[in-house]
Amino acid sequence: MISLALAFLIVAIIAGVLGLTGIAGVATNIAWILFVVGLILALIFFLTGRRPPL
User: Fold this and answer.
1) Is the model's pLDDT at 3 over the cut of 70?
2) What is the tens place of the pLDDT at every residue in 10-29?
3) What does each C-alpha distance from 17 to 14, 42, 52 come to in angstroms?
4) Which residues, 6 or more positions from 52, have their beta carbon under 8 angstroms from its beta carbon?
5) Membrane-crossing residues (predicted)?
6) Taking the model in full, what pTM does it have?
C-alpha cells in the first residue's frame, strides 16, 4: 500500500509540474487514502502479531 501511495504521489508531482492540476489533485487524494489505509493495516498487523508472507 505504501509503495502504491508513493507511486501516486510521484504521479501527482509530475502532473503538478506539467500544469495538469485536475490529475494532480486526484492523484494526491488517492495517494493520501492509500497511505492512511497502509498505516492502519500496518498498525493492525503490529498489534495482532501477524507478519506478511515471505
Assistant:
1) yes
2) 999 999 999 898 989 999 99
3) 5, 32, 36
4) 45
5) 29-48
6) 0.73
In eight-state DSSP terms, residue 49 is T
Q: What is the C-alpha separation between 52 and 7, in angstroms, rounded?
A: 21
Half-sphere exposure (Cβ direction) of 22: Cα atoms closer than 13 Å: 0
Cα torsion 37, 41, 43, 48 to 10°: value is: 160
**Which residue do the cell numbers 508531482 mark?**
13
Q: Is the CB of residue 35 less than 8 Å from the CB of residue 5?
A: yes
Cell of 39: 498505516
**Cβ neighbour number for residue 31 with a 10 Å cutoff:** 20
